[in-house]
Write a structure and sequence with these properties.
The complex is a heterotrimer of chains A (316), B (381) and C (259). By secondary structure, chain A is an alpha/beta fold. Chain A is built from 10 helices and 13 strands. In chain A, helix 4 packs across helix 5. With 381 residues, chain B is of the alpha+beta class. Chain B has 3 domains: 56 residues, no CATH class; 116 residues, Glutaredoxin; 160 residues, Tetratricopeptide repeat domain (Serine Threonine Protein Phosphatase 5, Tetratricopeptide repeat). Helix content of chain B is 54%, strand content 8%. Chain B has 16 helices and 5 strands. Chain B has a 4-stranded mixed sheet with strand order 2-1-4-5, with helices on both faces. In chain B, strand 4 and strand 5 form a beta hairpin. Chain C is mostly helical and 259 residues long. Chain C has one domain. Chain C is built from 11 helices and 1 strand; from the N terminus they run H-H-H-H-H-H-H-H-E-H-H-H. Chain C starts with a helix and ends in an 8-residue tail after the last helix. Chains in contact: A-B, A-C, B-C. At the B-C interface, helix 2, helix 4, helix 5, strand 3 and helix 8 of B face helix 3, strand 1 and helix 11 of C. Strand 3 of chain B pairs antiparallel with strand 1 of chain C, so a sheet runs across the interface.
Chain lengths: 316, 381, 259
Amino acid sequence: MSEKTTCIKIENLVKTYGRGRTRALDGISLEIGNGEVFGLIGPNGAGKTTLMGCLLSLLRPTSGDIHIFGYTPDNLRVKELSAFLPERPNFDAWMTARQFMSYHHMLAKLPHKTSKQDVEEALRQVELDPSAWDRRIKKFSRGMLQRLGLAQMLLGDPKLCFLDEPGSGMDPIGANLLRKLLLNWKKKNVTVVLNSHHLDEVERVCDRVAFIKGGRIHQIEELSNISKEEITIIVKCSPELEMPDDVLCSDIAATLEGHYFGITEHCLRFRLKHEKDKASLVKALVEKQVAVEEVFQERRGLEDLFIALHNEDLRR
Amino acid sequence: MAKSEGSAPETELQENVSASQKKSYGSTTAVPKWLLISTMFLLIVRAGLSISESISPPKASEEIKWRTPDTITPSDRGSDKLFFYEFSADWCEPCKQLESTALSSREVVKFLNEKFIPIRVVDRKREDGKNTPATQELEDLFSVQAFPTMVVALPDGTKIQDQLGVVNAVGLKKVLSEANTLSNYFHGKECLINAEPKLATEYFEAFLNQTHWNHWRAPFASILCALAFETMNDQEGSKRILEKAITTFKDHSFPYPIITHLAGKISFDELLKEAGENKGSRLMAYAYSGVQDFSRGNTAQATEKLSWVKSNSNDETSFEYRISRSLLAQIKMKKHEFRSSAAPNSTPPNLSPANTAPSNEGPAIQPAASQSGKSREPGNK
Amino acid sequence: MSPAVYLFTLWVKFSSMSSVLGLLFLAIGVPIILSSVAVDGKTADLLVNLVNGPTLAMAISYTFMQDNIANTRQMNDGEYLSLLFARPLTRSQYIVSKWLAGSTGVFIIMMLNILTFNTAQTLQGRNTVVDLNFWSMSDLILNALSYSALMVVIRSFPMRLGIAVFIILVYASLIGPALSFSMSSYEGAIPAVYMIFQALVFISNFLHHFVFPGIDLFEVLNTTRFSVLPLVTYVSNILMYLLLGTVLLSRREFSYGEE
């Protein structure tokens, strides 16, 4: 982060609904660097969409600040530099794909004379079959709608992209396309913020992921730290006995070239490089008099983390 | 959209923008200052003007020369101008609105002062419990129920046009000019009853020309005009009018059959068939056919038809009734004269009513307008 | 003003057969029906005043605003508008574009309406009722602008409130001509009926004074008591409605997700 300049800066963002009864966002602070691909994940109702809404100035924060490129999110300049893919592609069904794209080309205030060329280029990039370009949108399948949604983002080379659940309901070819676009943006140093349930694709392209739950950021992970081989181990200790101290756990992790994340709710969380180290870890813990009650293995990477957090929540 | 490739760090972006463009990049959700300020400014001006105008209303450059019901003189009644009555009341809000809009329009004011005698009738029933007799008489005459009501009438009280409720300047001007045109038709009818056929044809022709033969009263006007020519024994004039009517009017429903009958294209029996059971149509058919018979000297048929009208009409003020009574009286007098003189050298009776003195039974109502009728010219627009 | 939104708003009216038929009905069907009913000059006058009053202008601009100022469009317009407002488009530009598009629509359709009515009347051998001259044309344009501005505000209200206000205004504009007079007495009438009538007169007068933004340019300029007040009132009404529309749209939040 230090080598990159800030694109989005969120400070202590709070958003309440119903006169403060529901706190959708409960003090979010976050910095997203230029050119970073940033993922927002969390269960339904966690506040991801509300955060996205605030970033797009579609919702007004109750308190706190957001700065994008140094402007408030509702600034015209921010809108010129950014593009947005809504979760449900609810487009003007009566238009043809080409008409819809021309309309957005005009809305984006791009020069009229390049309109046809830009539109066709964008439609080609999302691999929408040219036979569908002049077809009415109401005849589009969900996959085609998503491609069209992506195509409208490409107009005018945005510097910042917001994607809301881009992968939901997408076929494997579509998911592949999305990945390609994301990588392309990454290459062009475009900042991307995406909301996703579809963790597989997120983890492959995101630089960092924020886990949002109950309107708070629970954890921010740098995905470069998570390799495919790595596993996450959660060790539940007996609540009656004394908890092991952090130094001890960190030392054990270090001997296995792993990483210790800390303790939450009698659960120790470790990350190990290889699955075979699991037994060694448990053995070491038991040897140090840790009252191990149960051991979970999160299956893999991000999805594991997400599920673990979610399970923890349920357990609570 | 920025086309710069590669990285666009925050600082670079901010610098790019802040120097020259930052001002033009405002918030998309803010309310524009110019809109806010100009709206506030105009609302304040509006409030100020409303208050100042309610204290001292703007001076009128020209005002309607209103008369009151009590100041109508016999010479007004004798003039050829139409009477424009405006019924209002002090408590009536719409009346005030009318006063400040349509009745303040330059063209309306000028038109009213030039071509009409404007009379303002202010109702006082709510304040005083009753109206002055003159006011009440007018309200009763025109059955005024609400304010503002505007009535254009002949000096004798024949209503020509009315307008209930507020109207805009263009609408009022139209009402007035239509009344002015229509007055020709009414004057023509009066002249016909009062045995002034020459004048009647002039009025009817003026009416037809002003409306370009395009008015629902035009067929009636053409019939009456033709009949007026007939009473002057001007068959050419009658034929000219009827031929034009036959070719002009596209609507062939009643009274069109009367026109074809008068032109000799269908018989009276066929006309009656066309009229069907409708009493109004039958009365018209009998009356107009009777007038033609009368002027052509077919006294027996005329008597038969006009008597039918006289005994079947329920409305003694209707034109058909009045003309029938007037002509029957003339026929009776002719017979009397013929019998009393009965000289072999007597000339055939001149059937033109223009040459006969009006009998005592003559015109049912002697309209005030007719007193100066001969001096009047059909009004031009 | 955003050309994209302006053109889109006009264009969307031709997007479906039903909306095209609806517009054709207003532009051509209504005057033909009226013309066949208007057997004499007086009825024609009455009907034309009814139509050329605010009612038709409001109805047309209401349909032109239909798309997406507020909570319409199959309840999904939050999502729909969220995509729109992610574009470089200010809320005030949006309102102004909608307003101008609505005004254009009203003008075109009213124009067709009058031409059709006049043609129908002429074909039936009757007098035309509305002459197209400088005054009637300028009134047509000015009132298209002002009634569309009013509809922008109504369309910015939450849907149910908007519909309720619209119905009240249409009702008031329809009974407006009938209530432009006061009864001379209430002898014989039940006092309650009379009171209701007076209340209706009052409300109608109030609406015509303060809400209906129409102007009669001929009256204003050809008056013997010239005052700028009607002009100021006209312009301030339009600006006030645009301001109100912008404020309402700016304050509005677009939740597009399930939260």
